[in-house]
Amino acid sequence: MRVVTISATYGTAGSQIGPAVAERLGVPFVDRAIPSAVAEELGCTLEEALAHDDRAEHGIGRLFSGAMRLPTVTFGGVDMYVPGAMPLAPEEFVNRTERVLKDTARLQGGVFLGRAGALVLADHPGALHVRLDAPVARRVRQTATLGQLGEREARQIIEDNDRARSAYVRHFYRTDPADACLYHLVIDSTTIPVPTCADLIVMAAEARD
């Protein structure tokens, strides 16, 4: 059961490359399913779970603001989370996300996009860790073209997402997600066509067998 983690900055086609790699390797593409699974485990709403997702531009702001300052509800000397009564604790979301990642990797393998997968699954046997990145100017052009946006709007989206994703990894893992030492393969997917990027990742994953 092959495992590939992909860390992708916004504008590098991670949401296109990830599913293509998963299909070629015959494993699930694990992305949007994670917040749903965590919400179900915690008994909270999907909206609350998404507020602390690493791709939520505004959710990461809540992580550092009111959600962390609200008093907890204590029962029998134990801090309890009451669904709907207060925001989801960010640390609890991250802990459950890690468990979902590890369990899924162990039971069925998969291509995992985001959520610090290279760190969470660093010790998973045979896992391939990939980083998709490129200079901001090229990511802006690609985002503007694919999304039919103006370059100013595309740049703002990229800056918001870069801050959110970097803050998530830095806060919870004390690591820079751009550190190339975390990955086996780093690709500039703004200069290499998406199908070729998928080919490179598949070849590298198969070579890890």
Give an overview of the whole structure.
With 209 residues, the protein is of the alpha/beta class. Helix content is 52%, strand content 12%. The protein contains ten helices and seven strands. A five-stranded parallel β-sheet has the order 2-5-1-6-7, sandwiched between helices. A two-stranded antiparallel sheet has the order 3-4. Strand 3 (73-75) and strand 4 form a beta hairpin. Helix 2 (33-42) packs across helix 6 (90-108). The termini are close together.
Summarize the structure.
With 209 residues, the protein is α/β, with parallel strands linked by helices. It contains ten helices and seven strands. The longest helix is centred in the C-terminal third of the chain and has 23 residues, at 151-173.
Fold blueprint:
Layout (H helix, E strand, L loop, with lengths): L2 E6 L5 H12 L3 E2 L2 H10 L3 H5 L8 H5 L2 H4 L3 E3 L2 E3 L9 H19 L1 E4 L3 H4 L7 E5 L3 H12 L3 H23 L11 E3 L6 H14 L2
Parallel strand pairs: 1-5, 1-6, 2-5, 6-7
Antiparallel strand pairs: 3-4
| SS-based class | alpha/beta
Contiguous runs where pLDDT drops below 50 for at least 5 residues: 57-86
Mean pLDDT, all residues: 79
Helix content: 40-55%
Q: Which sheet architecture does the biggest sheet show?
A: 5 strands, parallel
- Overall geometry comes to globular
Give the count of helical stretches: 10
What's the order of the H and E elements?
EHEHHHHEEHEHEHHEH
Q: Major sheet: order of its strands?
A: 2-5-1-6-7
What share of residues are in beta strands? 5-15%
Please give the radius of gyration in angstroms. 18 Å
- First CA to last CA: what distance? 10 Å
User: What's the number of extended β-strand segments?
Assistant: 7
